[in-house]
Design goal:
alpha/beta; single chain; binds NADP nicotinamide-adenine-dinucleotide phosphate; two-stranded antiparallel sheet; Rossmann fold; 33% helix; seven-stranded parallel β-sheet
Length: 189
């Protein structure tokens, strides 16, 4: 059986722990970003999680690409794939979300699950969460919130964020129906 391939957009920052966990589970992980540096981010993520870096780490494929040029990004990803991707995780700024997801859609296996990650910014509070972009791909939506901290609140840590997104990935891979999940406290719109 060929390797399962996960395409993770925006996976070299706070989602590095999520990408590392996929690698540890035997996935090949393709990571487009402007400044490939996943090796460093992944090592930081596994240390924060209390694990040693895994031997699977070299199975990460980093690609230099910018959301601002979605066709070029998709073409660069395509040249690295030996079969369509089995999973898409997308943490993409709302400005680029539609163009980038539509550009990479032809690279996905039919019905491959999608996990879309959103922050809970003002636009979402006013207009509500956008509909999933890709028809035909069951989509789990994740909204990142905040955590109470003393009398105020703080952003989620990278580990909390990655763990929350990973939980959605597992729901997606189990074939659970599309749904929306909050990580931390999300202001209700
Ligand atoms: N609710 C929350 O808890 C919440 C929500 C948002 C942010 N934050 C906090 O804010 C910090 C910074 O957030 P962030 O939004 O910068 O997220 P991040 O996950 O740290 O980084 C963004 C990811 O997207 C990639 N990326 C960004 N612009 C890109 C582009 N034009 N083309 C291709 N890839 C691109 C980055 O790689 P390259 O830079 O190499 O392109 C990176 O992989 C986080 O570390 C987190 O602590 C918290």
């Amino acid at each position: 059986m060929s390797d399962r391939i996960a395409l993770v957009l925006g996976g070299t920052g706070m989602l590095a722990g999520c990408a590392s966990a996929l690698l540890a589970d035997g996935w090949k992980v393709v990571l487009p970003s402007r400044r490939p540096r996943f090796g460093l981010a992944a090592r930081a993520a596994v240390v924060a999680a209390g694990h040693r870096p895994t031997a699977a780490e070299p199975r990460a494929r980093e690609i230099a690409a910018d959301w601002a040029r979605p066709a070029e990004l998709a073409e660069r990803v395509r040249t690295t794939l030996d079969h369509p991707a089995d999973l898409l995780v997308a943490w993409v700024h709302s400005t680029y979300r539609e163009s980038v997801l539509k550009a990479v859609a032809p690279l996905l296996a039919p019905h491959a699950p999608v996990v879309e990650v959103h922050d809970s910014g003002a636009a979402h509070r006013v207009h509500g969460l956008p509909e999933p972009i890709l028809d035909g791909h069951p989509t789990q939506q994740v909204v990142l919130g905040h955590v109470k901290h003393g009398s105020g609140r703080r952003w989620l840590s990278h580990r909390e964020t990655s763990d929350g997104v990973l939980a959605a990935v597992h729901r997606a891979l189990e074939g659970k129906p599309p749904s929306t999940h909050h990580v931390g406290d999300v202001d209700v719109w």
